Amino acid sequence: MITDRQKKLLNIVIGQYIKNPEPVSSKALVKSGPFSVSSATLRHEMNELERAGYLMQLHTSSGRIPTTKAYRLYVDSLMSGPGIYVPEATKNKIHKAINEAKDDPEELNKIVANIVSVLSENMVFTKIDETDRFYKTGLSSLFEFPEFRESDRVFNIASAFDQFERLFTQIEDELFGINSADISIFIGDENPIKNIKEEAVIVVRYPLPGNKMGSMTIVGPMRMNYEKNLGLAQCLVEEFKNKFNLKL
């Protein structure tokens, strides 16, 4: 177990690293964080978090970055909380798009994929369950992230994008089969898809017209903006349930 102060510190490190993929130092935290303690005290706490597997140090840098374990703790805290704030403008965009679209599953899936890809700046795939009808978008958005400018990462993520129809059977079996929740998140090695094990994946399920089920897969860097993307996913599920008066 980590202390409340360590958890607060970890959340701030994660928040800073999501905004800027540079190792976070204790000196930077003293300047920007709400801590009334010295840099040495924070450095000690960061050492403890590193020993516990929540932070790691790259090369000889004085700063640290979050591990998969840290992101998992952060995401679990978000998902167990009272709800994630979503700006009204974002809610209105999703509401308008879903409610103005025809009650056609393919059109709805395409519309929400485009909206979520733009808002999340991540890669998005949608599918109608028990069909081979896919829609995919947002590959170019990922190349705005510095981590996707490495040749190996570019190759892996592009391969996943090109082969997604084939991979989706595996995703359905291995991701959707793990639990039946509306929203599931797989971070790093938790993700069974070989080509995207350095990424984070959010899987969303929602009702569609004609008693069909839709699914959306959001793929982004491990340092994706989980709070924003989870908010988008929750908003999406709620809008679909309200529109079709269904409960999963």
Helix content percent band = 40-55%
Please identify, by name, the CATH architecture of the largest domain.
2-Layer Sandwich
**Percentage beta strand:** 15-25%
Name of the CATH superfamily of the largest domain = GAF domain
Count of spatially separate domains: 2
**Number of helical segments with 4 or more residues:** 10
Give the termini separation. Answer: 34 Å
How many extended strands? Answer: 7
Fold-level CATH name of the largest domain: Beta-Lactamase
Order of helices and strands: HHHEEHHHEEHHHEEEH
| Helix-strand makeup class | alpha+beta
Largest sheet: 5 strands, antiparallel
| The CATH class of the largest domain | Alpha Beta
Shape: globular
Mean pLDDT: 86
- What order do the strands of the largest sheet run in, or round the barrel if closed? 4-3-7-6-5
Low-confidence segments: none
Please state the CA-atom Rg, rounded to the nearest Å. Answer: 19 Å
Explain what this protein looks like in three dimensions.
With 248 residues, the protein is α+β, with helices and mostly antiparallel strands. It folds into two domains: 4-66, Winged helix-like DNA-binding domain superfamily/Winged helix DNA-binding domain (Arc Repressor Mutant, subunit A, Orthogonal Bundle), CATH 1.10.10; 88-244, Beta-Lactamase (2-Layer Sandwich). It is 51% helix and 17% strand. The protein contains ten helices and seven strands. The strands form two sheets. Strands 4-3-7-6-5 form a five-stranded antiparallel beta sheet, with helices on both faces. A two-stranded antiparallel ribbon has the order 1-2. A hairpin with a 3-residue loop joins strand 6 (199-208) and strand 7 (212-221). Helix 2 (26-32) crosses helix 3, helix 5 (88-100) packs parallel to helix 10 and helix 6 (105-120) runs antiparallel to helix 10. InterPro entries: GAF-like_dom_sf, HrcA, HrcA_C, WH-like_DNA-bd_sf, WH_DNA-bd_sf. This is Heat-inducible transcription repressor HrcA. It comes from Candidatus Yanofskybacteria bacterium RIFCSPLOWO2_01_FULL_43_22. One of its GO terms (molecular function) is DNA binding. Residues 93-228 form the Heat-inducible transcription repressor HrcA C-terminal domain.
